[in-house]
């Protein structure tokens, strides 16, 4: 009976006191690192009872909502100057939808990338999200059906988050296409991702990491990714339900960068820790560091998702 009361006490404490996404409640599982060719991933897990407080809101990911038909994405209007930076999303499902900056939605009159994290509640009314264009040179008269296309690579997510500037987003897309020798008439970011020469290798990476994560326990709430001699980014969530909803879409972006611009990982654990310490040591250091080097998304005054940008 006493043990039950103690356990209930812990539940009560962590329910009313939001857990921090810091070393106080998280640990970086260096011993469980997984490497395939140019990409190394280290899981981040909750510590003991600390995980009880890190319950993310009961939401579905954008990829899940589009796949099951509860999220319907359409253009806000036909005029490019007024509507290119907005998309309409109708949430017809029973749960809120978590939408993250860096997610790509292709189709419509132009491919887009989500500019800000948000949660869309179920509603019969139209709701709108801010986006940037990742397909310079196309604003078609006819609206194509929208489809979900995972996260952008970490380099593009960094430019988007640090500048929120359409011209610089286009500049980064053009730079990546030039460096990877990718040709596309509309300068579409997704041209490289859809290249038949790229697809088999990307699929091999994805199969490998998907199998590794499926065999792991379900306590993982985030990860840090490396390629060559540097960290290329990290994503950490306030609960494993959110993390696993975002896992496969996130992997696409990290894999894309590793294949196109990465090398076999050589970075030491000491260097990885140097990267993570400002993010995970305390809430104050986290907030200060991520203002310039990442982002923090809060929902109902609780940190739900943090992202560290590439070095």
Report on this model:
42% of the residues are buried. The longest helix is centred in the last third of the chain and has 22 residues, at 240-261. Strands 1, 2, 3, 13, 14, 15 and 16 form a 7-stranded antiparallel sheet that branches. Helix 4 packs antiparallel against helix 5 (166-179) and helix 7 packs antiparallel against helix 8 (240-261). Strand 8 and strand 9 (112-114) form a beta hairpin. The chain is α+β, with helices and mostly antiparallel strands and 311 residues long. The protein contains 10 helices and 16 strands.
Low-pLDDT segments, ≥5 res: 1-17
How far is it from the N-terminal to the C-terminal residue, by CA?
51 Å
Helix content: 25-40%
Using DSSP, what is the number of strands? 16
Shape: globular
Mean pLDDT: 89
Structural class: alpha+beta
Assembly type of the shown chains? Answer: single chain
Please give the count of helices.
10
Could you tell me the radius of gyration in angstroms? 20 Å
Order of helices and strands: HEEEEHEHEEEEEEEHHHHEEHHHEE
Which features does this protein show?
single chain; 311 residues; alpha+beta; seven-stranded antiparallel β-sheet; six-stranded antiparallel β-sheet; 10 helices; disordered N terminus
How would you summarize the topology of this molecule?
Layout: H1 2-16, E1 26-28, E2 34-36, E3 39-46, E4 60-61, H2 62-67, E5 71-75, H3 80-83, E6 86-91, E7 97-99, E8 103-108, E9 112-114, E10 118-120, E11 127-133, E12 144-151, H4 154-163, H5 166-179, H6 190-193, H7 199-215, E13 222-227, E14 230-237, H8 240-261, H9 269-280, H10 283-293, E15 294-299, E16 302-308
Helix pairs in contact: 4-5, 7-8
């Amino acid at each position: 009976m006493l043990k039950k009361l103690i356990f209930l006490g812990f539940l009560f404490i962590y329910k009313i006191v939001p857990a921090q996404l810091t070393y106080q409640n998280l640990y970086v599982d260096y011993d469980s690192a997984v490497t395939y060719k140019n990409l190394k991933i280290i899981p981040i897990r909750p510590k003991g009872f600390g995980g009880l407080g890190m319950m993310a809101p009961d939401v579905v990911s954008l990829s899940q909502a589009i796949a099951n038909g509860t999220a319907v994405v359409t253009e806000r209007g036909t005029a490019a100057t007024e509507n290119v930076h907005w998309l309409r999303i109708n949430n017809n499902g029973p749960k809120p939808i978590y939408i993250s900056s860096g997610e790509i939605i292709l189709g419509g009159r132009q491919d887009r990338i989500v500019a800000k994290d948000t949660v869309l509640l179920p509603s019969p009314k139209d709701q709108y999200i801010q986006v940037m264009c990742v397909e310079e040179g196309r604003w078609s008269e006819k609206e194509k059906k929208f489809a979900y296309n995972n996260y952008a690579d970490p380099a593009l997510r960094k430019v988007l988050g640090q500048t929120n500037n359409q011209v610089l987003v286009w500049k980064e897309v053009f730079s990546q296409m030039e460096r990877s020798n990718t040709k596309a008439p509309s300068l579409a970011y997704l041209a490289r991702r859809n290249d038949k020469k790229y697809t088999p290798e990307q699929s091999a990476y994805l199969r490998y990491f998907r199998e590794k994560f499926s065999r792991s326990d379900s306590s993982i709430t985030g990860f840090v990714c490396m390629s060559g001699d540097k960290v290329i980014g990290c994503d950490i969530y306030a609960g494993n339900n959110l993390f696993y909803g975002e896992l496969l879409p996130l992997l696409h972006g990290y894999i894309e960068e590793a294949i196109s611009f990465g090398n076999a990982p050589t970075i030491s654990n000491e260097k990885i820790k140097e990267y993570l310490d400002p993010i995970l040591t305390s809430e104050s250091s986290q907030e200060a560091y991520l203002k310039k080097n990442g982002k923090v998304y809060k929902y109902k005054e609780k940190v739900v998702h943090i992202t560290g940008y590439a070095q």
